[in-house]
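Here is a typical protein record:
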Amino acid sequence: MPKFPEYAAAIAPIIDAAHINLHAAARKATIELADTSGITPGLLIDLRFTLPLRPLTRSDLATIYRYGAPSGIQDHLDEGTLTDNDGELRLTRKGLEFVDALYALHATAAARIWTNDVPWLAETIGKLLDTADRVPGGALELMAPPYEPEWATPGLLLFNRLAALRYHRADAHASAWQAEGLSAAEIVELRDGPLHARIEADTNRRAATPYRILSEYERQTLHDGLLKLV
C-alpha cells in the first residue's frame, strides 16, 4: 500500500474518472431535461450540491472557479432559477425543482452503471469529506457539506460526495502553488520541471490528510472499489 501522499496521487484521477463517468451516463437525460424545462443547466450542474443549502457571492464563485470566471449567471437570473440579493446568488424554488430533477436523473444513472459496493463507498467518502480540513477562504468550505435530500440513493450520495471531495485536492493544489509565489494564470502556464514537480509533491502531501483516518485495508478497498466504477 503506498504511503499517504502517493495514495492521494493515485486515487485522485480515479475519483475524477468516476465522477466524470456518471456525468457522461446522465448526459442524454440531462439534455432532455434542459429541453423540456426550458432551463439552462449551466452553473446549476456544477453548483447543484451547494446552492440548495447556501447562497454564494460572486467572490465565492471566483474561488470555486479559480482558473477562469464562470459564464451564464445572467441566464440563470433571467430564467428565474437564481436571484441576486445584495450580491448573494440564491437558488429559487424553480431552481431547486430543476436541481431535484437533475438529482433524480443522476440517481437513475448511478443505479444503472454503478453496482459494486456503492453504499460502503458512499459512507467512506462521506467520512473523508467530514474530516477533510477546510482551507480558510478555500473552495471546499463553500462546496461542503453537499445537499442530500432524504430520498437520496447511495449512488447519488456517492456521486455528489465525490464531487465535493474533489475541492479538497483543488484547495491543496492552490495552497501549493501559492506557497511558491505563483498566480492562477502562472500555474496554468507552468510546464514540467523541478518547480512543477515540487508543487505536485506538496499538493499530494496536503491532499493526503483525510485518508489518514482509514486503515490500510480500507484505503485499498476504497481504491479498488472506485476503480470498478470507472
Q: What stands out?
A: The longest helix spans residues 4-37. The CA atoms of residues 104 and 151 lie 9 Å apart.
